[in-house]
Design goal:
The chain is of the alpha/beta class and about 220 residues long. The protein is built from seven helices and ten strands. About 30% of the residues lie in helices and about 30% in strands. Strand 1 and strand 2 (about 20-35) form a beta hairpin. The structure holds adenosine-5'-triphosphate (ATP) and magnesium ion.
Length: about 220
Amino acid sequence: MTTAPIVTIERASKLYVTGTERIWVLRNVSLSIDRGDLMVIEGPSGSGKSTLLNLVSGLTRPTKGNITVEGRDLAKLDLDQLAILRRKRIGFVFQSPNLFPHLTALENVMLPSRGATEERGRELLEMVGLGARLANHPHQLSGGEQQRVAVARALINNPGIVLADEPTGSLDRKKTLEIMNLFRKINEKGSTFLVVSHDPVVASLGLKRVVIEDGRLVDEDD
Ligand SMILES: Nc1ncnc2c1ncn2[C@@H]1O[C@H](COP(=O)(O)OP(=O)(O)OP(=O)(O)O)[C@@H](O)[C@H]1O
Ligand SMILES: [Mg+2]
């Protein structure tokens, strides 16, 4: 087993230029995520959280600095290679579950599968507490249940890391705790999570907590 970090971010900065405005959205961010981490980056709206996740998934290139994922330097990958990396090695959970309405829970989980068996899809839905809801369509599931389907879908290809951008942003307090407890349970089985959220309650449930303000990491305790 390698002990190398699964993700490294080294002195990453991101400049956006719109019209005459130049904004450094990320400034000199360095961070590494180890296998088995459940890290939450907490910060207010506009602090650069989504931009940071987009750097890790290769959707955005840094203006300065380096990113590696599972030892691969993202700067050396072309757009096709980045797309393959995302599909095979990264799971995504967003604020909205983004399920296909005409597909069942199980079919939604299987949709991005690259060779995973339906048995695996069933196991994942059982793990997220929806073993009895496999054949339900999204409109037959609550918002929290739909988000659980999205979590199972993110895991279908056994990704090296799950990136979650405000995964509880549409949920009430109780459902927020349920999703974070689910992440902890899945994390105990070995999956690595990088979660970003403005919500201190979400951050308090991470096993590592980092604060971002105005594009800079201001605090890290682990
Ligand atoms: N493509 C872009 N072009 C120009 N500016 C951008 C672009 N994407 C993001 N920004 C700016 O970068 C800053 C950080 O945006 P980002 O989406 O990373 O914040 P966030 O922390 O995820 O916020 P929220 O909690 O509201 O989702 C914002 O000021 C935003 O307006
Ligand atoms: Mg965001």
